[in-house]
Amino acid sequence: MVLAYHAANGSGPSYIQDMVKPYTPARALRSASAKRLAAPSLRGGPKFPSAETRGFAILAPKWWNELPIDIRTADSLHTFRRRLKTHLFRLHFER
Hints:
This protein is mainly α. The protein has helices at residues 2-9, 14-19, 49-52, 56-66, 69-72, 77-93, and strands spanning 21-22, 37-38.
């Protein structure tokens, strides 16, 4: 998720930024400011799509978009990591 944060904020390596792209709606929507990532299409993929669906370019946008908006829109890496850790602990331990 830290790599996805860097890619979403344009501070990561270029090869990571090439794998994930920010979501830009076709028209003005309220979700445009939600810092979502575009999920790539799996159509016309390889012969074994299950191997492709486990890749970073597929899973990073999926997991990133599932995060709460306050985590995705964190203004610093430190804040992002702190909020992400708290979120993951709550998911795991509060049952």
